[in-house]
Design goal:
The protein is an alpha/beta fold. It has one domain: 3-Layer(aba) Sandwich (Rossmann fold). It is 40% helix and 18% strand. It is built from 7 helices and 7 strands. A 7-stranded mixed sheet has the order 3-2-1-4-5-6-7, sandwiched between helices. Helix 1 packs across helix 2 and helix 2 runs antiparallel to helix 3. It is globular, with a radius of gyration of 15 Å. Pfam families: 3HCDH_N (PF02737).
């Protein structure tokens, strides 16, 4: 992958308001195959329905066509288990703002996938999150603004141990989103 290409498969962990919005944005605006995972029973299914409803509302308001909404839905899939994220190029976590939760999640994701691991944190330093990961060079921050599908703006933050060489080789996927 060159610096000019975007991630082709994006995983989103956390199916709350932000996670669902980020998943919709990844599937719709970035055109990426998108996998949504949440460990809470029923959370992923509920988010998938909220996303489908939001896409239909957008069609009704003339924001995008029915074909575009259908294509986004086709690119979005539920991931029943975290191991389903193994083939992702990028995984974005949108978990609760608790450092212990983010440490556990980043460590588990580092075992599952070689992807760039991003946190949507708004209050915890990326360096602190990366400290709980066996591969801190792969951890970045991607702070999306709410609602993510409408506010196509993301702040990308490197931690102290984020590898510039790895980041450049993978390319910042948000570049395409911000201009979409």
């Amino acid at each position: 992958m060159t610096a000019a290409t975007a991630a082709k498969v994006i995983g989103v962990v956390g199916a709350g308001t932000m996670g669902a919005g980020i998943a919709q944005l990844a599937a719709q605006a970035a055109g990426a195959d998108t996998l949504l995972f949440d460990p809470v029973d029923g959370a992923t299914d509920a988010a998938m329905q909220r996303i489908a409803d939001a896409l239909e509302r957008g069609v009704g308001r003339g924001r995008w066509s029915a074909d575009e909404a259908g294509a986004a839905r086709a690119r979005l899939r539920a991931a029943p288990v975290i191991k389903d994220l193994a083939a992702c190029d990028l995984v974005i976590e949108a978990a609760p703002e608790r450092l212990d939760v983010k440490h556990e999640l980043m460590a588990r994701l580092a075992e599952v996938t070689p992807a760039v691991l991003a946190s949507n944190t708004s209050s915890i330093p990326i360096t602190a999150i990366a400290a709980g990961c066996p591969a801190p060079e792969r951890v970045v921050g991607m702070h999306f603004f709410n609602p993510a599908p409408m506010m196509r703006l993301v702040e990308v933050i490197a931690g102290q141990r984020t590898s510039p060489a790895r980041w450049r080789s993978r390319g910042p996927p948000a570049r395409r989103w911000a201009s979409a």
